[in-house]
Amino acid sequence: MSRIxxxxxxxxxxxxxxxxxxLEAFDxxxxxxxxxxxxxxxxxADLIEIGMPFTDPMADGPTIQAAGQxxxxxxxxVAGTLGMVRDFRAHDAxxxxxxxxxxxxxxxxxxxxxxxxxxxxxxxxxxVVDLPTEEADLLLPHATRNGLDFIRLVAPTTDDARLxxxxxxxxxxxxxxxxxxxxGTRTASSEELAAAIPRLRAATDLPVAIGFGVRxxxxxxxxxxxxxxxxxxxALIDLLAATLDEAGRAT
Length: 251
Prior knowledge:
This protein is an alpha/beta fold.
């Protein structure tokens, strides 16, 4: 059983949903980013998503775009992000880590090498936002060989025929993009979630985590009532950004 599957099984037995916070690698600098990552499990994180900074993050809103730019200015690379995970694993062997990013840096790094190095570093799952299902064979065989869960994004616009296609080869959990839009903008209503999640349940036995627009404790609570986990990203990055000095440095 993968670390991700094991964690969701534990939470199911405990009768609660997963809190999945997000941080952008190297935002605002490597040391601060690593300290935040190390502190997340004790602060309540059940799983953690780490964003791999990229120059053209098409699904991200202004908050995460700015975090990615700060990370890139601080020297973020794919190898550096994997190094963060490797260092984290020296102190925490239990908390699942998911890398979330875009295909271009992975292609530049080399898909097979990326999956080999991610598995060796202690990564548990991958979310590649702009990888079409039809091109999944670029990564899926290498991910599977390294024990990496391949986590797919499903949107409100994904119809039933497409849903079955997208979920083929998925593992870990399903990431439900709860809005038609970019990160950190609006939030899906409880009614929208209540209508959407049963359709996913009928199509897969995998846990479902809800992201894009979960900004408050009440919204996270609504998300885990409807599904199995809540991904919180922009709200946390906004809090971090508010602590930076005028030059964008950590205080």
